[in-house]
Amino acid sequence: MIARLAVIGVGLIGGSLARALREAGAVGEVVGCGRSLPNLERARELGVIDRFSQDPAEAVVGADMVFLAVPMRAMRGVLETIAPALAPGAVVTDGGSVKGSVVADAGAVFGAPPPFLVPGHPIAGTERSGVEAAFAELYRDRRVILTPVEQTAPEAVDRVEAMWRACGAEVTRMDVSHHDEVLAATSHLPHMLAFGLVDTLARMRENDEIFRYAAGGFRDFTRIASSSPEMWRDICLANREALSAMLGRFSVELADLARLIREEDGDELLALFARAREARDRYIDGVR
Ligand SMILES: NC(=O)C1=CN([C@@H]2O[C@H](COP(=O)(O)OP(=O)(O)OC[C@H]3O[C@@H](n4cnc5c(N)ncnc54)[C@H](O)[C@@H]3O)[C@@H](O)[C@H]2O)C=CC1
Ligand SMILES: O=C(O)C(=O)Cc1ccc(O)cc1
To answer: What class of enzyme is it (predicted)?
Structure first.
C-alpha cells in the first residue's frame, strides 16, 4: 500500500506507526530520520526502520508517504527542510498533539496549507518516549483524528485514512479549532493537573514523607506526569489559547470546591461527586 514511508522522528509515535504498518504488511521500505544517532541505530537494530538519514530532506527522497512525529516546536523547521525534496505525489501527514499550529506552520512555509498535507493526531500514547517504547499495537482500536482544511486534497486524506486503518485504528475527521479545544479539555488539561500536583507536593518541605504515604489513587492520577517535559512544553505553547481557557475554567471549579469544603456544604459536595462519578462511569462503559 505504501511503497516507501519516511518517518521524521522515530520515537514512540513514529516508531509505533512503522511497527504497525510492517506487521500489517502495508509498507515496503521505512526510512527514519531523527536527531539522536543512538536512537536511530537502535531503531534499525529493532527492525523498526530499514535505513536512516539525519537530514530530513534526504530521508523523504522517493517516499510516497511522509509521517512527521517530532515535538510540536520542530514541525515548522522540518516542513521547511523537506519542502524542496518531496517526490511528486507524496502525501505528508503528522501525529502532533495540536493541529492549529501545524496548519499555521504549513501556511508559513508554503504560503498556504498545501493539498498534500493531511494534519492528523492519533489519540493514543503512553508516558514513555523514544523508539524503545514503540509497539505495533499502540493504535489498535484507538481513535485517530484527521483535520483536513479547505486546501487539502480528498485523495490525500483517503490515503492517510487507509494507512491508519491498516494499523487497526478508527479514523474520524474534525475541524482544526474544534480538535484543539476538545484536546485541551480531555488531554492537555489533565496533563497540566498531573504535572502541577506532583510539582506542588515535590516542593513541600516534607515531600519525602508525603510520597512515602501516597496511595494507589495518587499513582493512577499522576502516571502522565512521567511524560516528556519537552514534548509537553511544546504542546502547551502550541495550544496556549485553548489550554489557557480550560485552565481558567478549571480554576473556577477548584475555587468552588474549596469554598464548599470551607463552608462545610456536604450536600453540594455530594451532588458534585455523584455527578462526576456518573459521568466517569458512563465514559468507561462507552469505551469498554
Ligand atoms: N507521546 C504520546 O503519547 C503522544 C505524542 N503525540 C505527538 O507525537 C509527536 C512525537 O511524540 P513522541 O513520539 O512521544 O516523542 P519521542 O520523544 O518519543 O520522539 C520524537 C522524536 O523526534 C526526534 N526529533 C526531535 N526534534 C527533531 C527535529 N528537529 N528533526 C528530526 N527529528 C527530531 C527526536 O530525536 C525523537 O526521536 C509529538 O508532536 C507529540 O505531541 C501524539 C499522540 C500521543
Ligand atoms: O499517556 C497517556 O495516557 C496519554 O494521554 C498519551 C497522549 C499524549 C499526548 C497525546 O496527544 C495523546 C495521548
So the answer is: oxidoreductase
Is 27's pLDDT higher than 90? Answer: yes
Predicted pLDDT at 287: 82
Residue-wise burial string across 73-83, b where 16 or more C-beta atoms lie within 10 A, e elsewhere: bbbbebbebbb
Domains of the chain (ranges; CATH) run 2-174 (3.40.50.720), 178-287 (1.10.3660.10)
Burial tier of 149 (Cβ tally within 10 Å: 0-12, 13-18, 19+): middle
Closest residue by Cα to residue 117 from 163, 145, 149, 143 = 149
Q: Which ligand 2 atom is nearest residue 223's CA?
A: 1
Q: Is the pLDDT of residue 110 over 80?
A: yes
What stretch of H or E contains 233?
A: helix 229-238
Q: What is the pLDDT of residue 210?
A: 81
Give distance in angstroms: CA of 183 to centre of ligand 2: 10
Note the ligand closest to the C-alpha atom of 236: 1
16 vs 5: CA distance, rounded Å: 13
| DSSP category for residue 5 | E
To test ligand 1's pocket by mutation, which of 231, 235, 239, 243 has the most ligand atoms within 8 angstroms of CB? Answer: 231
Phi, psi of 2 (to 5 degrees): -110, 125
Confidence check on the interface: ipTM exceeds 0.90, yes or no: yes
Confidence category of residue 207, pLDDT binned at 50, 70, 90: low
Mean pLDDT of 239-255: 98
Answer whether 8's CB lies under 8 Å from 34's CB: yes
**Taking 70 as the threshold, does the pLDDT of residue 166 lie above it?**
yes
